[in-house]
Amino acid sequence: MNDTRKTSGLSGILGRIWLVLTFVVMAYGFYVAMTAPTEATMGNLYRVFFYHFPHTILSFVFPYLNCVASLLYLWWRPRNIERANAADAFALASAELTVLYASVGLATGMLWGRAAWGIWWTWDARLTTYLLLWLSYVSYLLVRRFAAPGQTAVISAALAVFAALDIPICYMSIRWWRTQHPAPVFGGGADSGIDPSMYPAVLWNLAAWAMWGALILGVRYVVERRRQRIAAARALGYLEGDLAINTHLHQEATR
Amino acid sequence: MNYTRIVWAHLRKDLRLEWRTKDSLNGMLFFSLLVVVVFAMAFDPTAFPTIARQISGGLLGVAVLFSAMTALNQSWARELNNHVLDAHRLSPAPASALFVGKALANFIFVMVVELVLAPVFTLFYNLHPLGQPWKLLIILPLGTWALVVNGTFFAVLSLRTRNRETLLPLVLLPISMPALLGLIQATTAVLTGEFEPTLWIKVLVAYVIVFTTACVLLFDTVLVGD
After folding, report:
1. How many angstroms away from the CA of B133 is the closest CA of chain A?
2. Alpha-carbon gap: A12 to the closest alpha carbon of chain B (Å)
3. Chain A residues closer than 8 Å to B154 by CB
């Protein structure tokens, strides 16, 4: 017991250092983003890109962390339940982060779209796939909420594997769909390359939001592990309580 | 008993159960008929033949998906009576055979609905396909299997959740979006004759292969997962 306290104290200190570092990088990223040269056509509005880009890129990383954790869960479940529970906690944390980052990505993307193309939304390949990614992981979180206790992990692990398989197929099919009927509004766009003067702002913000994501992921993981431990202890407590009552009744009956 | 015979046993049992009650088939048929009528309220298909051709593929796909969803929950709920599902869990037969049998049964039911629905669509919406209608014989089974195989898998997942009727569409719709898109686009290609459905048939084939494999591999884990 003492050992776990020591490590959690150490990880707490490391976590605080990490938090401070993240804030420093975030602040510097903000400074670089705001002082980067103004873009020729969009003016200052383009600065939302420095927040849109890291969030979207990272929201494609977390689903695959989620998928790997889910596969590990399925692998460890019959072998090592403690590790399996850890994998499940990690899967939950990364799914929540996917939804969080994808929501921010969608919102900033809409702001960008409104400024760049004059519309909030278009059913273009990337946007549609991205929306489907968001929908898939919201449904994952809903499943976790609805599933009967004790079943949650298996059901959601299976769903996570399906969702991760679905995203590439979805992206390819929608791209073919839209190349057959090109959307007129979509031209140029963010991926036609950026000016070298913008690189520092992009990279600093990417680093900042990756650090922030890792921190939240860690915190969420620890919280979920704690919840699992409390639930297990409570279940054990009930069992012991039952046992005590049963022995008591048994003694009463034999008396 | 080898694998095929176990699958056949499961399939025969499901077909016999359905033949005796006809619950899912009747429900699905009437439901999809209602969907056709409701969509006809939304726009007048006979007045705009070109638009009717362009969107009937989508309407057919949506009608099939929605009606399949009403049957999918029932197909597993049946196994809950008298704890049959627990018996399946204990049985030494491969669990994936149960899944394949059940998915095949659902596939046959939905295909029957489509066979009835297609002429109804043609009549009510005054359709004259401009492409090659025989291609529908490839597209519809592929698309149906793509929807049903995932539907059957997620129905057994949602069996063990609260409010399972709500959960199935929430999970199934985002995952089956590429299949739905492929089915709709290929059908539209045949109806309008504006482009070739080959690409979409390939998408459907890829989807079917990937997800049938995933379902068969994961089903064992999910069925026994307690």
Report:
1. 21
2. 35
3. 159
Other beta carbons within 10 Å of B46: 10
d(CA B59, CA B42): 11
> For chain A, how long is the longest CA-to-CA vector?
92
- Residue B139 and residue B197 in contact, taking contact as beta carbons nearer than 8 Å: yes
| Tens of pLDDT, residue by residue, chain B (226 residues) | 688 999 999 899 989 988 988 888 888 888 888 888 888 888 777 777 788 888 888 888 888 888 888 888 888 888 888 888 888 888 888 888 999 999 999 999 999 998 888 888 888 887 777 878 888 888 999 999 999 999 999 888 877 777 777 788 888 888 888 888 889 888 888 888 888 888 889 889 999 999 999 999 988 888 876 5
CA distance linking residue B91 with residue B156, whole number of Å: 17
- Indicate yes or no: CB of A161 within 8 angstroms of CB of B222: no
DSSP B163: S
Q: Which residues contact B124 (CB under 8 A, 6 or more apart)?
A: B36, B37, B40, B45
CA-CA-CA-CA torsion for A52, A57, A61, A66, nearest 10 degrees?
Answer: 30
Measured CA to CA, the distance from residue A221 to residue A62 in angstroms comes to: 13
Nearest to B175 among A74, A136, A154 (CB): A136
In this structure, what DSSP letter does residue A37 have? P
Assess A143–B contact: CB distance below 8 Å, yes or no: yes
Calculate ∠ Cα A225-A206-A220, nearest 5°. Answer: 10
Q: Å from B20 to nearest chain A CA? A: 32
For residue B163, give the amino acid letter.
N
Given an 8 Å threshold on Cβ–Cβ distance, is B171 in contact with A143?
yes
CA-based R_g, chain A, Å: 24
Q: Nearest-5° angle of CA A46, CA A50, CA A55? A: 125
Instruction: Specify the pTM.
Output: 0.83
Q: By CA distance, what is B196's nearest residue in A?
A: A180
Dig out the tokens for A21 from the structure: 């570092």
A130 in helix, strand or coil?
helix
Domain ranges of chain B: 3-224
Let me know how many helices (H) and strands (E) chain B has, helices first.
9, 0
Chain B residues with CB-CB distance to A165 below 8 A: 210-211, 214
